Structure formats: C-alpha cells, structure tokens
C-alpha cells in the first residue's frame, strides 16, 4: 500500500515539483490516510470486509496481526461512514490529494505552495460534488468529507502508535520502508 501511495503522489505534477524534503514530509504524514481512502473503495458495506480481488480482509485480520481493538473499531466505523457516501472515483482521488497536500505536516517547508494546492483541490472537490450529486442528498456531502478527513487525521496518529506497538512485540513486523514512514 505504501508503494501505491508513492506511485499516486508521483503521478501528480505539483507533487513532483516540490523539493524532495517536502515530498518525503508529505508522504510520511499522509501515507496511512491516503491508504485508508484507497482501501475504502474496496470496502463491502454488507460484509464489513475489504475485498481486494480474491483476498478478503476483516477487522479480525487486523486484530490477529497485532492491532488493538481500540484502534480497529473506530477504523471500521470510519470505513462504514465513508463508504455509505457512495463516492465516485474522482472524489476518492481528490480526497487522497487533499490528505496528501496538507501543509501542516511536520517538516514541510513550502507551506504556502502546498496550501495553495490543497485549496485548489478542495475547491475542485466542492465543484465536482455540486455538479455530480443532486440535491438534497448532496447538501452536506462536502462538509461530511472534510469531517472525515479530520477523523482520518486522528486515526493516523493512533495508527502510528499501533505500528510502534506491533514493532515492539514483533521486531521483524515492519519493512525498512514501513519503519521510515511510521518513524
């Protein structure tokens, strides 16, 4: 998933135009958030499972891999709420970009440029929603998405704690790339 997030980011010209230090800071800060947004597109509301082709993941799989229930239950609730919004693919992509281009990530230098990208992405998402989702169903969709991004930020912080917890239990649980992202 980390490699998919890196690939996604590198496909965005504005991301590639940033200094390498800012690219790294944004990726370190947003990888889990972007991954969860991507992961939501394969979430099945009826089964509460993630269906990745022939591979199916459940919350139980997360518990078996070392994640604590206090993290997994809010994560599942997030995915249920997010999936119920029935987003289109472009909305998922724009949400990923919003998560990626957060100017308040630790280590970011070009705050103003990243903030400008973030603002343009947010406006694009709002315009897309206004055009493609009829009222009254879409009346609060944009606000709900921004709220979910804030919730995802909180889940991101908890995820980092969970990853450190898992690493402490199983020292070989994380690849070097994962260690870099979650350090």
Automatic annotation (TrEMBL):
Location(s) in or outside the cell: Cytoplasm, Cytoskeleton
Domain NR LBD: 1-183
Keyword rRNA-binding: no
Keywords of the record: Activator, Cytoplasm, Cytoskeleton, DNA-binding, Metal-binding, Nucleus, Phosphoprotein, Receptor, Transcription, Transcription regulation, Zinc, Zinc-finger
Keyword Nucleotide-binding on entry: no
Highest rank taxon of the organism: Eukaryota
Family note: Belongs to the nuclear hormone receptor family. NR1 subfamily.
Name of the protein: NR LBD domain-containing protein
Organism, scientific name: Staurois parvus
């Amino acid at each position: 998933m980390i490699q998919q997030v890196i690939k996604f980011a590198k496909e965005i010209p504005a991301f590639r135009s940033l200094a390498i230090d800012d690219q790294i800071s944004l990726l370190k800060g947003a990888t889990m958030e972007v991954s969860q947004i991507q992961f939501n597109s394969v979430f099945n509301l009826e089964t509460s499972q993630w269906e990745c082709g022939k591979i199916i993941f459940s919350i139980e799989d997360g518990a078996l891999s070392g994640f604590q229930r206090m993290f997994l239950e809010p994560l599942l609730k997030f995915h249920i709420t997010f999936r119920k919004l029935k987003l289109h693919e472009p909305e998922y992509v724009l949400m990923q970009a919003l998560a990626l281009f957060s100017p308040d990530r630790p280590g970011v230098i070009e705050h103003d440029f990243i903030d400008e990208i973030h603002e343009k992405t947010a406006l694009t998402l709002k315009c897309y929603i206004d055009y493609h989702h009829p009222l009254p169903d879409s009346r609060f969709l944009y606000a709900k998405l921004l709220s979910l991004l804030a919730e995802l930020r909180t889940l991101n912080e908890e995820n980092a704690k969970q990853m450190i917890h898992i690493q402490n239990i199983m020292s070989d649980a994380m690849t070097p790339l994962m260690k870099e992202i979650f350090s």
